[in-house]
Design a protein that fits this description.
The chain is α/β, with parallel strands linked by helices and 333 residues long. Helix content is 39%, strand content 24%. Helix 4 packs parallel to helix 5.
């Protein structure tokens, strides 16, 4: 561990907090100082395992003089208030999305970050996945010629619990927002129109007023089209793929499998399942994302995911949801 390691506080020790813990254990550039969770027993267990302190409240952790930066991995509805508290104390903060439930909360957070000159990093980890990042770089290089079409596929595994779905913000802001971020990041243009259709095959999700199966289409101002199809369940593992097509060729980022072994027999070719779920699929991405945050917190580089990016992602997720509910093609305002 470097003597100059960034001293980090972690708020929230649920499924998001756990993969940040794994990343922090692998890093020399950051050191976990304290953790805080609504369940004090969980906080104590993690603190003992990771040889760090625990605080009784998020406010106490944020106020610590020995905490240089904060990771917010708490339930969705608390993100905005905790980000505000960090920025008021000029603490660089990485927060899981969504940053806020409403556009006003997003704008206010970035306004305060600018006023306090404190980095605000909203976590869109797919940008840091080695395969997806390579696809983005290749598509931006011009090697495909004129881009025509982008396709993103996201199928969850395992099916999230009803308790998670109830507080997640819905499939558009919780799940599809990642696909929207990647598609817009690839195309580098503004969408002008969207359409979408959704359905619910999982009874518990339908009863909560949410979809578990959605397909969306986007038209961009430069003529590029895109589709996104997402589902809350996948029998064969965590399904995450990207395709970019242009007049000079095509780029594919395929699923990762547990091993590279392929068995051939008179029954055909078989391969192991895809990664089980997002913590393993995006293990390298979460680590790279956190390493990037450390550099941003030290003011070595600007935050790569901008206010405009986060704002666009929120507006598009909202507009696609409206298109699905109304079953109409809608203009992007």
């Amino acid at each position: 561990m470097s003597e100059n390691a960034l001293r980090v506080g972690l708020l929230g020790l649920g499924r998001a907090g756990r993969f940040h813990l794994k990343s922090l254990r692998m890093m020399d550039s950051a050191r976990l100082v304290s953790v805080c969770d609504l369940d004090s027993r969980v906080s104590q267990q993690v603190a003992q395992l990771h040889h760090c302190d625990t605080d009784e409240s998020p406010e106490q952790l944020i106020a610590r003089d020995d905490v240089d930066a904060v990771i917010v991995a708490t339930p969705t509805d608390s993100h905005f208030s905790l980000v505000q508290a960090c920025l008021q104390r000029q603490k660089p903060v990485l927060t899981e999305k969504p940053l806020g439930r409403h556009l006003e909360e997003i704008d206010e957070s970035f306004r305060l970050a600018k006023e306090k000159e404190s980095p605000l990093f909203v976590a869109f980890q797919r940008r840091f996945d080695p395969s997806f990042a390579s696809l983005v770089d290749a598509s931006h290089s011009g090697s495909l010629g004129q881009l025509h079409f982008v396709r993103s596929v996201s199928r969850d595994n395992p099916v999230p619990s009803p308790d998670y779905i109830r507080t997640s913000g819905g499939i558009f802001h919780d799940c599809m927002v990642h696909d929207l971020d990647m598609v817009v990041h690839i195309v580098q243009a503004r969408p002008t129109h969207v359409s979408a259709f959704g359905s619910s095959f999982i009874r518990e999700i339908g009863e909560l007023g949410d979809y578990d199966n959605v397909v969306a289409s986007l038209l961009f101002e430069n003529g590029v089209t895109a589709t996104i199809d997402i589902n809350r369940q996948s029998a064969f593992g965590y399904d995450q793929r990207l395709e970019v097509f242009g007049d000079g060729g095509m780029l594919l980022a395929e699923n990762r499998h547990l091993t590279t072994l392929t068995q051939a027999s008179d029954q055909g070719f078989t391969r192991p399942q895809a990664d089980y779920s997002f913590p393993t699929r995006y293990r390298e991405a979460y680590l790279a994302e956190l390493e990037c945050f450390v550099r941003c917190a030290r003011r070595e580089i600007p935050v790569p995911i901008t206010h405009e990016d986060v704002r666009m992602n929120h507006c598009l997720a909202t507009r696609v949801q409206q298109a699905a509910e109304q079953r109409e093609v809608l203009a992007v305002e």
